[in-house]
């Protein structure tokens, strides 16, 4: 086996018939928590790993609730909730190994926490203290990205860098349904395919881009089809079925890792809360729709599934809940412990060596600050 | 010492950068097989292989965003955007990520990368091939903005840019690509990135210019000497960081200043320079600081560009308006009144 200069195993790009997504979203578990007719090309995880996923989903849900509460108390500047999208958030983190990279959006804080990054540092951006609180190099998590779809190109570049360095690592990049209309989404798919970059794109189709519903975003039969034209293998999955999301992402990561190029996954899911705390979702969607999706909540679904299989005990459930409470308590305790940031820091990171002009401006602000303090 | 063009100097700068550091990658549209539409990357693909010098799909945002990821992943990308006006699709990546990555990550993710852009007019290009886009980049904190006016500077500024830990927008005055110079490249120029250079010393007035306007300024200074006015010409070379020190020292010495730029005048780099000069040199100034710039019109078609481009006559005219004779500038005032 050899990965060639263009990034593909033995120089072979996927054939057209290998690119097409399933006609209906891949699903392992029904909304009632019973077995669905799953396609055979994907393998469900072990019960152990699914138990781990359950634990992480409980923590992710609690983290999200805590962050929303902190926002209501005015302790975060803004918070885009991912409640309802935990299967995607957790499966994304779980499918990656330590050496892999994650390129998240502003909505993917739960995934970043699930990857093991300190929740306080994950919320630095949304607290308004600095733009990125964690160390991207140490955590292998790129900064939460706000300009839509722009991070997808960085992910492709990073994947190409890893390939060039011969590292056994892949990149996963998240994007929303709205983000798939941006030029950078298309440029990223194209670059990834041409260079055979080991990158997995995960579209969390949560049905809305702020207020704009999917039908006004695209006329594609499913967002997963957008990969096909670029030569990217694509799949669609029930995004509220963790077993399915994880199975497809495992396959996608392996596909990328083994030199078969990029992989696009569309996960059909739903954001149960508003776009952010500042949003008024009642203006663009009705209660009935929200109720329907609430019934498809990924968390009770996985719980029911694991209960039926007899691999999740009351004790496990209590332990997961206790872990989640501990994380929330820790978050509340530490969120403002370090006080407001130093205003002079805004001059520190613009360039490696500050310009004479920045030094001058720094001194002037310093004098101003000293004046107010005196 | 032989003759060298700026295009050859840039080519040599890229070649030596690729040789010096394995992490350097050169890519863009048509830079591989073709060697670039201006042949700046000529021969590099053959010499260093398609892993080091390669073509990308046609997408400017794509190739700059891709470069961001490569830089995050430990490489030193040098990308070519084919023309000034075709760099605009990449502007979001440049303004939102290239310029900000280091800052938003508190210094943890520096982006050592170079974005080369052939810019400016004077080559008879049809529309979208002659923009002077420096103000957009210079206005964006986090970017360094460099523009050479000589072959020797082109070589060394490019070498510096590739070694720089921060992103550099490297603006190449395309009308100077083929101007020949009697200079070797082995000789290190007087000052590094961030320092302006005095191209011609003078006592009566300072002409500040950069990139394509430097030869115009020098020609104007030669003409002015015939009228008995001894003009100093400063080549800024780097717009960001700006060399206030050299500029201020020169204007304080001469007491008079004209800024020349090919770009539209309104809200341009020249406007910033005039503001800085009057803030720092007010008591040394014997006359208002004057700008000579392109008109505030979209860059004109080739048959009109001679009338758009600030040439020697317009610069001379500005020099003569510097109130050497202590008389109000009647001609100019009359023109404004009409
Ligand atoms: C380039 C760009 N345009 C507009 C915005 C403003 N904006 C922020 S989120 C958003 C909707 C994005 O929807 P989607 O991609 O579906 O992701 P979701 O928020 O649903 O997770 C918009 C328009 C932005 N952040 N970036």
TrEMBL record, chain A:
Cofactor: thiamine diphosphate
Gene (UniProt): pdhA
Source species of the chain: Streptomyces seoulensis
UniProt keywords, alphabetically: Oxidoreductase, Pyruvate, Thiamine pyrophosphate
Signal peptide region: none
Name of protein: Pyruvate dehydrogenase (Acetyl-transferring) E1 component subunit alpha
Domain Dehydrogenase E1 component: 54-327
GO biological process, one term: branched-chain amino acid catabolic process
Gene3D superfamilies assigned: 3.40.50.970
GO molecular function: magnesium ion binding; oxidoreductase activity, acting on the aldehyde or oxo group of donors, disulfide as acceptor
Superkingdom per UniProt: Bacteria
TrEMBL record, chain B:
Cofactor: thiamine diphosphate
Alphabetical UniProt keywords: Oxidoreductase, Thiamine pyrophosphate
Transmembrane segments: none
Gene3D superfamilies assigned: 3.40.50.920, 3.40.50.970
GO MF term set: magnesium ion binding; oxidoreductase activity
Domain annotation Transketolase-like pyrimidine-binding: ranges: 4-179
Domain of life the protein comes from: Bacteria
Protein name, UniProt field: Alpha-ketoacid dehydrogenase subunit beta
Organism, as annotated: Streptomyces seoulensis
């Amino acid at each position: 086996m050899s990965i060639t200069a263009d990034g593909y195993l033995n120089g072979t790009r996927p054939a057209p018939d290998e690119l097409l997504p399933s006609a209906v979203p891949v699903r392992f578990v029904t909304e009632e928590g019973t077995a669905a007719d799953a396609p055979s090309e994907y393998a469900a995880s072990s019960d152990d790993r699914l138990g781990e996923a359950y634990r992480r989903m409980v923590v992710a849900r609690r983290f999200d609730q805590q962050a929303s509460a902190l926002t209501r108390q005015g302790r975060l500047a803004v918070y885009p909730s991912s409640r309802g999208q935990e299967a995607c958030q957790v499966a994304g983190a779980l499918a990656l190994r330590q050496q892999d990279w994650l390129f998240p959006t502003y909505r993917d804080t739960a995934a970043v926490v699930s990857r093991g990054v300190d929740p306080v540092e994950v919320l630095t951006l949304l607290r308004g203290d600095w733009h990125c609180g964690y160390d991207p190099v140490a955590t292998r998590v790129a900064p939460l990205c706000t300009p839509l779809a722009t991070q997808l190109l960085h992910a492709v570049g990073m994947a190409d860098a890893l390939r060039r360095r011969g590292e056994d690592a892949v990149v996963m990049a998240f994007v929303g349904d709205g983000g798939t209309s941006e030029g950078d989404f298309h440029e990223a798919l194209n670059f990834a395919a041409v260079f055979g970059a080991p990158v997995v794109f995960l579209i969390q189709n949560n049905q809305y881009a702020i207020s704009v519903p999917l039908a006004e975003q695209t006329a594609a039969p499913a967002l997963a089809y957008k990969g096909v034209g670029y030569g990217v293998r694509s799949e669609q999955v029930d995004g509220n079925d963790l077993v399915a999301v994880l199975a497809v992402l495992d396959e996608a990561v392996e596909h990328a890792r083994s030199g078969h190029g990029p992989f696009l996954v569309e996960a059909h899911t739903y954001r149960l809360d508003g776009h952010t705390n500042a949003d008024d979702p009642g203006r663009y969607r009705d209660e009935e729709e929200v109720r329907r999706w609430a019934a498809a909540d990924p968390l009770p679904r996985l719980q029911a599934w694991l209960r039926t299989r007899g691999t999740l005990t009351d004790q496990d459930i209590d332990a997961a809940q206790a872990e989640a409470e501990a994380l929330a308590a820790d978050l509340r305790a530490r969120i403002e412990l370090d006080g407001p940031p130093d205003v002079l820091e805004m001059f520190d990171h613009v360039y490696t060596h500050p310009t004479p002009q920045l030094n001058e401006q720094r001194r002037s602000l310093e004098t101003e600050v000293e004046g107010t303090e005196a | 010492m032989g003759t060298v063009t700026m295009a050859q100097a840039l080519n040599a700068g890229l070649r030596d950068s690729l040789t010096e550091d394995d992490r350097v990658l050169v890519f863009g549209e048509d830079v591989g097989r073709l060697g670039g539409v201006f042949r700046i990357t000529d021969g590099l693909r053959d010499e260093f292989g398609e892993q080091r010098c390669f073509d990308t799909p046609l997408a400017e945002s794509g190739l700059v965003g891709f470069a961001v990821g490569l830089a995050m992943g430990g490489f030193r990308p040098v990308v070519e955007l084919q023309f000034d006006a075709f760099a605009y699709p990449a502007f979001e990546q440049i303004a939102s990520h290239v310029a900000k990555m280091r800052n938003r990550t508190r210094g943890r993710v520096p982006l050592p990368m170079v974005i080369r852009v052939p810019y400016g007019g004077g080559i008879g290009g049809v529309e979208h091939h002659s923009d002077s886009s420096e103000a957009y980049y210079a206005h964006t904190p986090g970017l360094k903005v460099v523009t050479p006016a000589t072959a020797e500077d082109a070589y060394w500024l490019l070498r510096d840019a590739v070694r720089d830990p921060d992103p550099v927008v490297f603006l190449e005055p395309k009308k100077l690509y083929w101007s020949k110079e009697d200079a070797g490249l082995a000789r290190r120029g007087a000052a590094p990135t961030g320092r302006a250079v005095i191209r011609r010393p003078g006592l009566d007035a300072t002409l500040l210019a950069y990139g394509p306007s430097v030869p115009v300024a020098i020609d104007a200074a030669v003409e002015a000497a015939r009228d008995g006015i001894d003009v100093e010409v400063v080549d800024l070379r780097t717009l960001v960081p700006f060399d206030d020190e050299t500029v201020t020292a020169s204007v304080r010495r001469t007491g008079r200043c004209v800024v020349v730029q090919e770009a539209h005048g309104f809200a341009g780099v020249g406007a910033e320079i005039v503001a800085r000069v009057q803030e720092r040199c007010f008591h040394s100034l014997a006359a208002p600081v004057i700008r000579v710039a392109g008109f505030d019109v979209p860059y004109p078609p080739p048959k009109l560009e001679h009338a758009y481009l600030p040439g020697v006559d317009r610069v001379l005219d500005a020099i003569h308006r510097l109130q050497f004779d202590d008389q109000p500038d009647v001609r100019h005032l009359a023109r404004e009144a009409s």
